[in-house]
Amino acid sequence: MTLKDIKTALKTLDKIAFQLPNGSLVPSHFHVTEVGKVSKHFIDCGGTVRHEDVVNFQLWNANDYNHRLHPEKLIHIIELSEKTLDINNNLDIEVEYQGETIGKFGLDFDGTNFLLTTKQTDCLAKDNCGVPEKKPKIKLADLNNEPCCTPDGNCC
Q: Which of 10, 99, 139, 140 lies in the 20 to 30 Å Cα band around 89?
């Protein structure tokens, strides 16, 4: 989800709710303590220099039950950060939330709740660093259709 997408979604809501990957909701008295632009300049294991920019939201669960964040307030915070930090509204959003440690999540929207989605690490240079591609799955029943014990067969 991009910054532009979240602003569009916020305009349709009366209240903001973030849902964790396990289905539970972030407590409704959360705060967005940071909106920032995070730039990552790095080299992958294949030697390619890369640069990534994301917008980062940090959610914080405080014991402040009297100050709920409303959609129009978050839109104001986002617009201020765009102007002040020169943030492109087409950047993807990454969300930090405190569990046992600080977790990083992607963001999606189901029409009611903002969904914190799991993120995975990956090798960005599989072709350069020798990581094998996934082997295709073959049904054993299909092997009977192959010519057997011929140079083109799969059973010898």
A: 99
pTM: 0.78
Supply angle C-alpha 14, 15, 17, rounded to 5. 145
Give the 3-state DSSP-derived string for 78-122, with helices as H, strands as E and coil as C: HHHHHHHHCCCCCCEEEEEEECCCEEEEEEEECCCCEEEECCCCC
- Cα distances from 111 to residues 10, 15, 20, 104, in angstroms, run 10, 12, 15, 22
The token pair at 46 is 């294949």
Task: Beginning with the edge strand found earlier in the chain, give each strand of the sheet holding 93-98 in spatial order.
Answer: 18-19, 114-117, 102-109, 93-98, 49-61, 30-43
